[in-house]
Amino acid sequence: MEFILLIFSVFAAIVPYFFLILFIWWLDRNEREPFGYVISSLVWGGVGAIFIGIVFSLLLLLPATFIFGNDLADLMGTIIFAPITEEIAKGIIIIILLNSLQFDNATDGFVYGAASGLGFAMTENFLYFSQAIGNVQGWLILVFLRTLFTGVMHMTTSAIFGAIVGYVKYNKSTAKKIFMPIIGLGIGMVIHSIWNITAVAQGTSKEGYPLVIGIIMLMIALAIIFVLFLLSISHEKTIIIKYLTEEAKTGLLPENHINYIANFSQRKRRGWFDSRDRGAYIDAAVHLAFRHDQLFHAGNPKKIEILKADIEKLRTKIREILIKNR
Q1: Same domain, 200 and 315
Q2: Which of 24, 52, 262, 319 has a Cα at 20 to 30 A from 66?
């Protein structure tokens, strides 16, 4: 039975979150991130972030144990060291991907952050599940709680950081580009710490109140960040319509195409564009709109030149596709 539960632990740790990140990626329908980037974030969370989190937690725990003793040091490790080291470790992939032109805005940061958090949760959950295989009932309860709540906590905290990094990527204010991500990281650490505090309190309480409080707070945080994610997607549509309308006035593309490009449900309708080139046309048009918005907000001269060059490349690509489909 233990071997069977060990196998089930692998599936329980990986499958639910893999489908969850697929769903989040699917929701980003205006301009989906390259799936390879999403998988890279997932793998980073499950391997790189886990390794860094463990190593640096231990480095902090050793002197704390020497100074405060085992019990207090263990408590500090759970509610202080783990939130700090794990949130930083999960967020590293966001910084690595930041210079990519594929990383456009808050929506993209949310997706990459969520992927890193879920990757971390996959590995962490497997480690916990595999240690509980001696008791079927205990294993089932652990799988239920960690899958529904602890893993979602990791996703939420990393998504907050990623979304804020994406939001300020092209901001003119250097102060905002520095301090807002730090604030986002801090918010993630606080949420993580509060969740761990409720878990510790639940372990010493005969009542279920600490866990219930933790779940309620986590669900509120998740709901807020998810609503912001949907609002960011809606804002992307506004950007697409605004800047493609401006481009249509210059004659770059037909104005009647804008509705199809800006509305995901309309994109695959027959008759408005050759299906063989439709995907490339939509992709170029959407990126063109995003580059205009990024150029409007950009303050860095080097980034401005890069964006201007990319805008011309995208215009050329759109012209070539339209000439081909006359």
Answers
A1: no
A2: 52
Handedness of CA 267, 269, 271, 274 (dihedral sign): positive
What are 152-176's pLDDT values in tens digits? 999 999 999 999 999 999 988 889 9
Other Cβ atoms less than 10 A from the Cβ of 103: the count is 20
Which residues constitute the domain of residue 267?
250-324
Q: How many angstroms separate the CA atoms of 190 and 126, rounded?
A: 24
Q: How far apart are CA 90 and CA 44, in angstroms?
A: 8
3-state DSSP assignment of residue 197 = helix
Q: Identify which of 156, 319, 128, 306 has the alpha carbon closest to the alpha carbon of residue 223.
A: 156
* Burial class for 86, CB neighbours closer than 10 Å (0-12, 13-18, 19+): buried
Domain assignment present for residue 241? The answer is no
Packed helices 82-97 and 106-130: angle between N→C axes, nearest 10 degrees: 140
* Per-residue pLDDT, 294: 93
Q: Is residue 240 part of a domain?
A: no
pTM higher than 0.85, yes or no?
A: yes
Q: What tokens were used for 121? A: 């949760």
**pLDDT computed for residue 3 by the predictor:** 86
Task: Give me 27's structure tokens.
Answer: 């929701």
DSSP, residue by residue, 250-312: TTSS-GGGHHHHH-GGGTT-TTSS-HHHHHHHHHHHHHHHHHHHHHHH---HHHHHHHHHHHH
In angstroms, the CA 185 to CA 72 distance is: 25
Q: Is the pLDDT score of 208 beyond 80?
A: no
Name 30's Cβ contacts closer than 8 Å, sequence gap at least 6: 107, 233, 236, 237, 240, 262, 264, 286
Residue that the structure tokens 């804002």 belong to: 235
Instruction: Answer yes or no: do 226 and 275 share one domain.
Output: no
Q: Is residue 56 part of a domain?
A: yes
Q: Is residue 190 part of a domain?
A: yes
Instruction: Choose one of 192, 210, 234: the last residue of a domain.
Output: 234
| Residues 171-184 pLDDT 10s | 888 899 999 999 99
Residue 138 Rama label (left phi>0; alpha psi -120 to 50; beta): alpha
